[in-house]
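Fold description:
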Amino acid sequence: MVFNKRCFGVGTEDGSPGMDEKEHVDGLFTILKYLYVFAIADYLPWLEVFDLDRCKKILKNAIRCLKKYQDPEIDQRVEMWQQGTRKTKEDILDVLINLKDSKENHLLSLQELKAQITEIMLAIVDNPSNAVEWALAEMINQPDILDRACKELDQVVGRSRLVDESDLYRLNYIKACVKEAFRLHPIAPFNIPHVSIKETTVGGYFIPKNSHVLLSRRGLGRNPRIWEDPLVYNSERHIINKDLEVVLTDHDLQMISFSIGRRGCPTIVLGSTMTTILLARLIQGFSWSPPPNTLGKIDLVESQRDLLMNKPLIAYAIPQLEPHVYQKLMM
């Protein structure tokens, strides 16, 4: 989608990503992990040179890792467009390279292009994967929800082909499951900080000009004044009218999935589509159950360091589609 390739480096024999891709993804998650970390130099700038908590060193190494894999791809692609050996826009990188103003001047320099690609990679790697992992874990623990999702997929798509983007508008229950995961299990405790450009009052609270404003994703999504049984995963709460399509954003700020407003996430549609497709294909492609020796339940415990699952989801999956569907994926 970004680089028109499944992974960096050479994958394994079974088609899985190899060590190069793992190193790249680890670098992305390291940067995301330290996005909200407490660093004493943020409050005492003169201590920055000492890097007492090693945050600076860790982030530099992670950024170096991203550059190791991304920059050569970007440099090569830019050169291909300059030499005229590439003429068709096939991915996000091609689109960004060819952004021009009214005078046909490129809008992004090479340095800006690389920064934008890193921003996009950081934006798409965490939220969809976290929401799908939590949603699948919750649904395995509530077989009735999982069963209803499977029935919807059988009715809309069947088992002779994979669900695709054109099916999503008819998969209201699947989208409700995704939205409930965004509500109950946000990827981060807070939204990205914003600064108020003028004095204002919100909900009876006075916010002075130049204030740093943080919205609590967890606080909004688990607010008992808004949500009934807020700690219970219940996808039904998002299906208010069966004739209305479920959308993954909430303009009333009762929850935050991809942020909203003029400075909200610019890839809300893309992120929503990726998340829904990922969950739908996992549910459609396999019959899921807790692994043996787990007393029939997945351990739904948050990590003490962040809002991810304390332990990666491990579940028992049995293929349930026609064999030729899986064979096409491996081609």
Summary: The first strand starts at residue 194 and ends at 195.
